[in-house]
C-alpha cells in the first residue's frame, strides 16, 4: 500500500460540523465564488426524516442494524427506503427500477426493490474489502448498459494493497464471485476516489484519488489522481488520449462524482484541500491542476473549474444530472444538495442550496423516476437511503 500522508482540508469523512465551522487544519472562510442561494425550507416533521443522531453502541446483529420501510405506491413526501447502514456509499439503479446499494464499512451490497412493489430490502452479497480507518472500503457501483441481457455489476473496493474494480455476475437475485478486471489504483487513509460509471460510449469511467501523495496527480504513469476510461475487461479504452494508457484526464485530487448531461458532456466533482471544492467539465487529455493549483487560477496550463465553493460549504461526493438538465451535487461537509444550472457553452449559472442541514452529510444522489434518492453519510451506523420529491432539491 502506498504510504498516505496526513492531509488537511475537505476530507469527505471528517465529522460533521455546524454551519460556518471548519475542521482542524482548514482555513477557508471566504464565501463561494459561485453565486448561491440557500433553501429556507425547515426540516420536515414527517417520521423518518429527521437528522440522525450519533450512536456510540454498535448494534449486536445485522437484523438490528438494517431496517426497511415499504413506501406507498405514490409517495408525496420523504420516504426512508433503507436504514441502519454503515455508510451507504453508492446507489446503482437496475433496469427494473430496483437498486443496489454499497455499504462502505462492511462490504455488503443491499438490493432495494422498486418502490411500490411491497418487497423488502435484502443483503445480496459482500465484496472482499480491506477496511481500516479512513475512506477505503466498498465504494462505487456501476450497472452495465446491457444489464437486461448480460447482468453484471461492477464494484470499486479497497484491498490491503490497492483499490481495484471487479465484475460481479447477478444470478438469481444474488451476487456471484467477483472477477477482478482492474487493479493497482493507489489506496491510502485519505483520497481513495471510488466513483465508477458507464459513459454514453459504453466504456467504464473511474474517478481515483491521489491517496495523500500529491505527486501522483501530475504523474501520467500513476493511476492516482485521475479519471480513467476502460473497457469491461479492464483494458484501456480505444481512443484514450495517452496511447495505451487508461488515463482520460489528470491533475485531480479526489474525484467522487461522475455524470453526463444530454450533450454527452462529462461532469466531475473534485475535493479541494484548504480553499476550493470544484465542479469540473472533463475533456480528454486535459490537466486539472492539482497540486499546482486549487480552484480558478486563469493559468493556461490547467483547466479551471466551472464552479467552485469554499470547502465548508461543499465537500462534494456523488453528482447527477437532473431531469431539468442541471447538475446536482451531494455535499458532505456542506450537508446539502447543490443545484447548478449549466448552459450549452459549458458555463454555470447561479447555484442554489437545498436540504441544508436536514439530513446531515449527503454522499450520493440519483434521479429515479419522478423522485430523487439520496444516501446519508453521518458515520453513526444508522445511515439511510431516502426517496424525496423532486421539489426537495429544486428539480420540480
Count of distinct strands: 25
General form = globular
Portion in helices: under 10%
* Second CATH tier, the architecture of the domain at 86-349: 6 Propeller
Which CATH class of the domain at 86-349?
Mainly Beta
**Oligomer kind:** single chain
Please identify which CATH superfamily of the domain at 86-349 we are dealing with: TolB, C-terminal domain
Describe the structure.
This protein has one helix spanning 62-65; strands spanning 36-38, 79-85, 88-93, 99-103, 108-112, 122-126, 138-143, 152-158, 163-171, 174-185, 196-198, 204-207, 226-230, 247-250, 255-260, 266-270, 276-282, 307-310, 316-321, 327-331, 336-340, 351-354, 362-368, 371-376, 383-389. With 396 residues, the chain is mostly beta strands. It has a domain at 86-349: TolB, C-terminal domain (Neuraminidase, 6 Propeller), CATH 2.120.10. The strands form 6 sheets. A 5-stranded mixed sheet has the order 1-22-21-20-19, with no helix packed on it. The longest helix has 4 residues, at 62-65.
Brief summary:
The chain is mostly beta strands and about 400 residues long.
List keywords for this structure.
396 residues, mainly beta, Neuraminidase, five-stranded mixed beta sheet, disordered N terminus
Write the layout of secondary structure elements.
Elements: E1 36-38, H1 62-65, E2 79-85, E3 88-93, E4 99-103, E5 108-112, E6 122-126, E7 138-143, E8 152-158, E9 163-171, E10 174-185, E11 196-198, E12 204-207, E13 226-230, E14 247-250, E15 255-260, E16 266-270, E17 276-282, E18 307-310, E19 316-321, E20 327-331, E21 336-340, E22 351-354, E23 362-368, E24 371-376, E25 383-389
Domain Glucose/Sorbosone dehydrogenase: 85-380
Biased composition (Low complexity): 8-71
InterPro entries: 6-blade_b-propeller_TolB-like (IPR011042), Glc/Sorbosone_DH (IPR012938), Quinoprot_gluc/sorb_DH_b-prop (IPR011041)
Amino acid at each position: 500500500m502506498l504510504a498516505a500522508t496526513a492531509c488537511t482540508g475537505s476530507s469527505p469523512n471528517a465529522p460533521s460540523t455546524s454551519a460556518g465551522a471548519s475542521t482542524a487544519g482548514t482555513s477557508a472562510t471566504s464565501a463561494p465564488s459561485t453565486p448561491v442561494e440557500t433553501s429556507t425550507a425547515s426540516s420536515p416533521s414527517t417520521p423518518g426524516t429527521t437528522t440522525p443522531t450519533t450512536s456510540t453502541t454498535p448494534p449486536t446483529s445485522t437484523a438490528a442494524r438494517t431496517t426497511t420501510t415499504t413506501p406507498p405506491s405514490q409517495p408525496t413526501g420523504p420516504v426512508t427506503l433503507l436504514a441502519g447502514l454503515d455508510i451507504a456509499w453508492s446507489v446503482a439503479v437496475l433496469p427494473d427500477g430496483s437498486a443496489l446499494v454499497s455499504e462502505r464499512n462492511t462490504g455488503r451490497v443491499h438490493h432495494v426493490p422498486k418502490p411500490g412493489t411491497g418487497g423488502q430490502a435484502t443483503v445480496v452479497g459482500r465484496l472482499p474489502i480491506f477496511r481500516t480507518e479512513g475512506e477505503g472500503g466498498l465504494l462505487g457501483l456501476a450497472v452495465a448498459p446491457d444489464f437486461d441481457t448480460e447482468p453484471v455489476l461492477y464494484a470499486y473496493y479497497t484491498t490491503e494493497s490497492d483499490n481495484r474494480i471487479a465484475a460481479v455476475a447477478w444470478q438469481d437475485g444474488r451476487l456471484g464471485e467477483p472477477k477482478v478486471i482492474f487493479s493497482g489504483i493507489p489506496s491510502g487513509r485519505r483520497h481513495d476516489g471510488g466513483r465508477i460509471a458507464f459513459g454514453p460510449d459504453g466504456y467504464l469511467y473511474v474517478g481515483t484519488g491521489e491517496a495523500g501523495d500529491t505527486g501522483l496527480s501530475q504523474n501520467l504513469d500513476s493511476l492516482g489522481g485521475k479519471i480513467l476510461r476502460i473497457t469491461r475487461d479492464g483494458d484501456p479504452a480505444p481512443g484514450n488520449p495517452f496511447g495505451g494508457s487508461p488515463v482520460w484526464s489528470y491533475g485531480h485530487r479526489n474525484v467522487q462524482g461522475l455524470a453526463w448531461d444530454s450533450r454527452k458532456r462529462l461532469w466531475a466533482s473534485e475535493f479541494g484541500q484548504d480553499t476550493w471544492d470544484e465542479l469540473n467539465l472533463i475533456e480528454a487529455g486535459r490537466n486539472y491542476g492539482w497540486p499546482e493549483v486549487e480552484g480558478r487560477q486563469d493559468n493556461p496550463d490547467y483547466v479551471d473549474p466551472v464552479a467552485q465553493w469554499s470547502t465548508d460549504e461543499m465537500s462534494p461526493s456523488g453528482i447527477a444530472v437532473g431531469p431539468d438538465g442541471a447538475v446536482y451535487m451531494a455535499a458532505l461537509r456542506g450537508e446539502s444538495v447543490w443545484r447548478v444550472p449549466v448552459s450549452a457553452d459549458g458555463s454555470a449559472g447561479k447555484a442554489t442550496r437545498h436540504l441544508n442541514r436536514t439530513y446531515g452529510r449527503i454522499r450520493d444522489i440519483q434521479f429515479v423516476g419522478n423522485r430523487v434518492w439520496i444516501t446519508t453519510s453521518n458515520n453513526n451506523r444508522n445511515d439511510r437511503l431516502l426517496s424525496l420529491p423532486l421539489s426537495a432539491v429544486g428539480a420540480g
